[in-house]
Amino acid sequence: MKKMRRSERIVDLTRQFLENPHTLIPLTYFAECYQAAKSSISEDIVIVNEMFQSEGIGELVTSAGAAGGVKYIPAISIKEAKESMIKICQELSNNERLLPGGYLYMLDIIGTPKWLKTIGRMFASIFAKEEIDVIVTVETKGIPIAHATASYLNVPVLVANKDSKVTEGSVVTINYISGSTKRIQTMSLAKRALREGANVLIIDDFMKAGGTIKGMINLLQEFNAQIKGIGVFVEVDGAQEKLVEDYISLARLTEVDEKEKNIKVELGNYFKEG
């Protein structure tokens, strides 16, 4: 790469960090890339870090030593997250979104890049301090949210299927009871998809009683996986006992009247605790 002016370096440094979250990049790489002294690069990194923190988009973490470098940790401020989720909750509170069984129509929210990126950034910020190896979700609507979160954590996504597929090879399959319908269902994951003892973040789009998430936990136990966190986009608030306790929700469906078609969506437990 040709030698750059300082302003150009700072712009390109910003680009590289944003494109490679949670990736340790050695100072020597930048020094060779920009044909500049490490001391100059370090000064540039301080400027970029100050901008990241002032804008609430994360921080740069520096580690010393021969194997050291700089890592960008994406984040979102509580203020920005709350403002965004209030808007999403207002959208979700539209009575026309109510589906049979007390479910919500959310595909347009999940399918809007702006909202999807914001949701993924929220989950990535919440679980940023955990050593996540992989994100696990179940087909189908949780997949976009899982991938949005993975893009900020820089980890792969695994999808637990309700029906095993020939292309997956040998699979591990478990039966679980759906918390809302009380029906016995199956869930499977390819044996070669997840290494033994991996650190896993579970992401799901909607939770009533938590039967599906409980099923994912049981499935992951077959791999001796370590559950480092559970993130739920929308949970249903009510008298029904949850099958999982330790989870973070971004929104909460607090009022459902199928007869009158009245629904109300409020902020989830993440904001209540924050």
Roughly how many Å is the radius of gyration? 21 Å
User: Any idea how many domains?
Assistant: 2
Helix content: 25-40%
Provide the CATH topology of the largest domain. Rossmann fold
* Computed structural class: alpha/beta
Uncertain spans: none
Termini separation? 45 Å
Give the averaged pLDDT, no decimals. 91
Broad shape: globular
CATH hierarchy class name of the largest domain: Alpha Beta
Strands ordered across the widest β-sheet:
6-5-9-10-11-12
Main sheet characteristics: 6 strands, mixed
InterPro entries: PRTase-like, PRTase_dom, Pur/Pyrimidine_PRTase, PuR_N, PurR_Bsub, WH-like_DNA-bd_sf, WH_DNA-bd_sf
GO biological process, one term: negative regulation of purine nucleobase metabolic process
Protein name: Pur operon repressor
Family: Belongs to the purine/pyrimidine phosphoribosyltransferase family. PurR subfamily.
Write the layout of secondary structure elements.
Blueprint: H1 6-19, H2 27-34, H3 38-55, E1 58-63, E2 69-74, H4 78-92, E3 98-99, E4 103-104, H5 107-110, H6 113-126, E5 134-138, H7 142-153, E6 157-160, E7 171-177, E8 184-190, E9 199-207, H8 211-221, E10 226-236, E11 248-257, E12 262-267, H9 269-273
Parallel strand pairs: 5-6, 5-9, 9-10, 10-11
Antiparallel strand pairs: 1-2, 3-4, 7-8, 11-12
Protein name: Pur operon repressor
Keywords: DNA-binding, Transcription, Transcription regulation
GO molecular function, one term: DNA binding
